[in-house]
């Protein structure tokens, strides 16, 4: 197989990647010492499995391979194939993901792929006959087929080892034992689900071929996975980084510094991606056109690809963007974390920090004053598992809708994971941190009304075609002081904020520097007072109508709309959400006396925020005096990338496509049936979606955010296609999101008691 992205350097060393390396320098004595410290740190953190568990995994994979071979012979005989084909019938197990990459930890699941012949179907044979065989085996527990997922999967435990099993049906009568799935010809005449299922193995194998040193790659990737989990940026479905995303990012750094040890690779990881000019793509090799006509990531040809904010491209054909879930909010958060990591690595070189500093947990429930809480519930464990998967795939849409409907003024930070209240069976809870966009002037008393946005989100979630009685969702606003105790370790709320951390010290330094900057600005204002008076006299001579016209045209689109529509806002048009612990699926319409979701005009928390309150521009490079001149020149050239022209600003707006744009295969449940779950309190359901649909051209039309990025709502990993339906009539004279904000009310005070 020809591996694209390979060439030879002048010194005879093989070059990996689409560019020359940034540096060929080898490790220093300092790098050797710090790498040993890092390896010991990861060992002490429990990130390596024991030898006994490794043996059990090997045995499980061997047994699973025997099971699928028996299965394919059984179905071949049942389908009446001749004796020779039955004898030659074969299936084969491949692995991918963290296990194949060699970075899995204790208790991690194994991503596996079963490759079968053309006569072994997915629906009837894989999810039918093989499912029955596994169900009868005492070693198999927690068997859960998910045939309707974006990538169909069978989940189960075999002798206590978690297995995710995919299926690929090839256009071959016999599967050879030495099958090479890295060949593009394997995709010939394959259906879409088979291509997607094969993609994981093909990408994983290609990554391992494109890194210069496997052992250094393993250690660095294990370190970055641990860092991402501790800092709350490890979740592909939430719009952060998943396992394959981190593998691709780390592999690119290994290509750029082929002779570096993990200590230097970690430092350069943060340095390079702090300076990276997103949305230029990260690629390990050139993108292949291929001969099979499969769609590939190409912003020059595909309009949808132009709106990806942080493209990280898979190296195997068909090349895809592995981070299409990233939103402007999650990109901002990840950029801040890259910056933080880069600064800590610099401090480590100066002896002012250590690995503990880099891996400090992100204090999510101390970082914000306001949170959005999403509760889901079901009647049993199986229903909750299905409902959980569907809701998690939709949560990204809530982030996108809030960003769009508030014109980027309200920023969301989704927590990558769920919480469970042990006192409530079959219940999960999710949280999003909320804050006003930093660095934007604030008028006193401004509030945000996101109730209609939340209603729209709930409406799309409740359109789940496999919805069952008892499946419910509720969204509410909670203050930091009202966060439930069950989200904290041991169910005990800390009596005081976390210990002094790098983040809190950095935040304090920024506040001090900000105050000094304001003092300097005030001095400059005095010296420029005379010039200001001259400008004022000149402006006073202008015609009043000209002044009004100029003020409107000089406003941003967001400000201009608000200025024009101010008179249409009713002060009594309050929006709030009522939360009742006993009714997970009801949203109430509270009166104006309920507290509002207000955001103070200050840029930082009054109690000593642990959050770095500043905006990071992921497009502009950061000056680093510790980088050699040659390395900086090479880095700047690579970071700029070849795709700068594909930024959203350079193209016309893309037509709006809401998340429910896959038509035909599934059906939306009727609103009448959906409302049966909500009729337990008819007085609370006056603003139900079925009565007042909130989807309108004004609310959901494609809008450019203030940062110039276009937020596109597209299907997440777990999709449920919908039939095209005529929109319900819109309520008349009902204003939506405007600057004269009212709020999504907080949860009832009784909830915390």
TrEMBL record:
Bias (Polar residues) ranges: 513-525, 598-610
Alphabetized InterPro entries for the sequence: NT_sf, NuclTrfase_I-like_C, PolA_pol_cen_dom, PolA_pol_NTPase, PolA_pol_RNA-bd_dom
Subcellular compartments: Nucleus
GO molecular function terms noted in the UniProt entry: ATP binding; metal ion binding; poly(A) RNA polymerase activity; RNA binding
Domain Poly(A) polymerase nucleotidyltransferase, chain residue ranges per copy: 17-211
Pfam families registered for this protein in UniProt: PAP_central, PAP_NTPase, PAP_RNA-bind
Recorded GO CC terms: nucleus
Region described as Disordered: spans on this chain: 497-552, 584-684
GO biological process, one term: RNA 3'-end processing
Cofactor(s) needed by this chain: Mn(2+); Mg(2+)
Annotated Poly(A) polymerase central domain residues: 216-361
Top-rank taxon: Eukaryota
Family affiliation: Belongs to the poly(A) polymerase family.
PANTHER family associated with the record: POLY A POLYMERASE (PTHR10682), POLYNUCLEOTIDE ADENYLYLTRANSFERASE (PTHR10682:SF10)
Name of the featured protein: polynucleotide adenylyltransferase
Species for this entry: Arachis hypogaea
């Amino acid at each position: 197989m020809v591996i694209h992205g390979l060439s030879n350097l002048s010194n005879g060393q093989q070059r990996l990647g689409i560019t020359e390396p940034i540096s060929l320098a080898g490790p220093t004595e300092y790098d050797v010492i710090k790498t040993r410290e890092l390896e010991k740190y990861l060992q002490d953190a429990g990130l390596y499995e024991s030898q006994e568990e490794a043996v059990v995994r090997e045995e499980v994979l061997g047994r699973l391979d025997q099971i699928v071979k028996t299965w394919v012979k059984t179905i071949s005989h049942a389908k009446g194939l001749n004796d020779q084909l039955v004898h030659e019938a074969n299936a084969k197990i491949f692995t991918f993901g963290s296990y194949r990459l060699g970075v899995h930890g204790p208790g991690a699941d194994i991503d596996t792929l079963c490759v079968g012949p053309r006569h072994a179907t997915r629906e009837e044979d894989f999810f039918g006959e093989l499912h029955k065989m596994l169900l009868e085996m005492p070693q198999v527990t927690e068997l859960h087929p998910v045939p309707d997922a974006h990538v169909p999967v069978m989940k189960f435990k075999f002798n206590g080892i978690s297995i995710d099993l995919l299926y690929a049906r090839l256009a071959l009568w016999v599967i050879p034992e030495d099958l090479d799935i890295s060949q593009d010809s394997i995709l010939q005449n394959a259906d879409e689900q088979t291509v997607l299922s094969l993609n994981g193995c093909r990408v994983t194998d290609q990554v391992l071929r494109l890194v210069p040193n496997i052992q250094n790659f393993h250690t660095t990737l294990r370190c970055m996975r641990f860092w991402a989990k501790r800092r709350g940026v490890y979740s592909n479905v939430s719009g952060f980084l998943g396992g394959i995303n981190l593998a691709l990012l780390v592999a690119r750094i290994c290509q750029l510094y082929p002779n570096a040890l993990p200590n230097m690779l970690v430092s350069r990881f943060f340095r390079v991606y702090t300076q990276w000019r997103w949305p230029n793509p990260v690629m390990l090799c050139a993108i292949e056109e291929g001969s099979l006509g499969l769609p590939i990531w190409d912003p020059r040809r595909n309009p949808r690809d132009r709106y990806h904010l942080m493209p990280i491209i898979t190296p195997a054909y068909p090349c895809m963007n592995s981070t299409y879930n990233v939103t402007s909010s999650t990109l901002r958060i990840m950029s801040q974390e890259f910056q933080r990591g880069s600064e800590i690595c610099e401090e480590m070189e100066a002896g002012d920090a250590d690995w503990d500093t880099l891996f400090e947990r992100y204090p999510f429930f101390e970082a914000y004053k306001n949170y959005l809480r999403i509760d889901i519930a079901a009647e049993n464990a199986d229903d909750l598992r299905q409902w959980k998967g569907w809701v998690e795939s939709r949560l990204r849409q809530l982030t996108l809708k809030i960003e769009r409907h508030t014109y980027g003024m309200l920023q969301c930070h989704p927590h990558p994971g769920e919480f469970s209240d042990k006192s409530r069976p079959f219940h999960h809870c999710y949280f999003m941190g909320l804050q006003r966009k930093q660095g934007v002037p604030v008028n006193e008393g401004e509030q945000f009304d996101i109730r209609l946005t939340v209603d729209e989100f709930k409406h799309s979630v409740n359109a789940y075609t496999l919805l069952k009685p008892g499946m419910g969702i509720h969204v509410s606003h909670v203050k930091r002081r009202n966060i439930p105790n069950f989200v904290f370790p041991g169910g005990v709320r800390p009596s005081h904020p976390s210990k002094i951390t790098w983040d809190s010290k950095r935040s304090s330094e920024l506040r001090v520097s900000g105050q000094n900057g304001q003092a300097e600005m005030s001095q400059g204002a005095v010296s420029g007072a005379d010039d200001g008076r001259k400008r004022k006299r000149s402006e006073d001579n202008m015609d009043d109508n000209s002044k009004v016209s100029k003020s409107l045209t000089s406003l941003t689109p967001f400000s201009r709309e608000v200025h024009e529509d101010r008179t249409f806002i009713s002060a009594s048009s309050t929006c709030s959400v009522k939360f009742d612990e006993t009714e997970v699926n009801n949203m109430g319409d509270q009166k104006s006396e309920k507290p509002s979701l207000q955001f103070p005009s200050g840029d930082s928390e009054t109690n000593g925020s642990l959050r770095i309150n500043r905006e990071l521009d992921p497009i502009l490079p950061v000056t680093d005096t510790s980088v050699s001149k040659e390395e900086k020149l090479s880095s700047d050239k690579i970071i700029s990338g070849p795709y700068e022209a594909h930024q959203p600003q350079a193209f016309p707006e893309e037509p709006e496509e809401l998340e429910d744009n896959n038509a035909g295969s599934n059906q939306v449940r009727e609103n009448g049936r959906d409302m049966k779950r909500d009729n337990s309190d008819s007085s609370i359901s006056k603003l139900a979606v079925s009565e007042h649909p909130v989807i309108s051209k004004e609310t959901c039309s494609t809008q450019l955010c203030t940062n110039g990025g276009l937020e596109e709502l597209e299907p997440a990993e777990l999709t449920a296609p919908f039939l095209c339906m005529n929109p319900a009539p819109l309520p008349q004279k009902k204003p939506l999101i405007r600057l004269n904000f009212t709020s999504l009310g907080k949860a009832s005070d009784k909830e915390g008691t």
